[in-house]
Amino acid sequence: MIDIQSQPDSRNIPIDKVGIKNLKYPITVLDRSNGLQNTVAVINMYVDLPGEYKGTHMSRFVEMLQLLSPEVSLKKISVILAQMKEYLDAASAHIEVTFPYFIEKKAPVSGIPGLMDYTCTFIGASYSNGDVDLVLEVNVPISSVCPCSKEISKEGAHNQRGSVLLKTRFKKFIWLEDMIYLVETSASCDVFSVLKRVDEKHVTEKGYTNPKFVEDIVRDIAVKLNQDDNITWFSVSAENFESIHNHSAYAQIIS
Predict the structure, then answer these.
(1) DSSP secondary structure string, 85-151?
(2) What are the structural domain ranges in the chain?
(3) In terms of CB atoms within 10 Å, which end of the chain has fewer, N or C?
(4) What integer pLDDT is reported at residue 14 of this predicted model?
(5) CATH class of the 131-255 domain in this structure
(6) What is the pTM of this model?
(7) How many C-beta neighbours within 10 Å does residue 113 have?
(8) Who's near 175: CB < 8 A, 6+ residues apart?
């Protein structure tokens, strides 16, 4: 049969990234407490395309995912990047694997367990010179209390949920749980899926005694990361979904 994709293209313009996006796929990731965790990922996969070729072979991207089964790890990402370059005759390859990761978290006073979900992403790239770049990303919900509101108000202070996006490069393996814990302990208070009245009292008072701007949150996280020899690069951003403003507050630090 005629292979249209492999036919020459007269425009001779190279493409930096071509591939598939938003493919849902079941995966299994490492879980520190339970060994492995089953989840469903949304996967993006791309390669470069030389200017002389009309198109790439889209079906081969999906075939490549069999290399991920059953476990997905940064080590597996490196393998599939190499296979993508070889199988698709490409100089560079990129992959993004985004998935919900669940951690059982007990309420702070009652101890009642509940599942918290965190959006995590493995990002990998393999370049034409052979370099491989791996980034681990976690998106962590938090709560914050405004220091200014607390200082100027006779009673109470405005507080809100927020989100911290942390990306890291590192020398050796790092647990998702460690990145999530680092973020949660840098907020005014962390977020829980189950809270009884005694727990609500605890988290409300904890946040009130630990007010933080978004600037404080990203700086506190940066301090911890700068002290970790395993971390070679990071990007951390915090967004507070303000409860008394019609906008969010935002801060970012890139090392």
Answers:
(1) HHHTT-S-EEEEEEEEEEEEEE-TTT--EEEEEEEEEEEEEE-TTS-EEEEEEEEEEEEEE-HHHHH
(2) 13-99, 131-255
(3) N
(4) 92
(5) alpha beta
(6) 0.91
(7) 11
(8) 30, 32
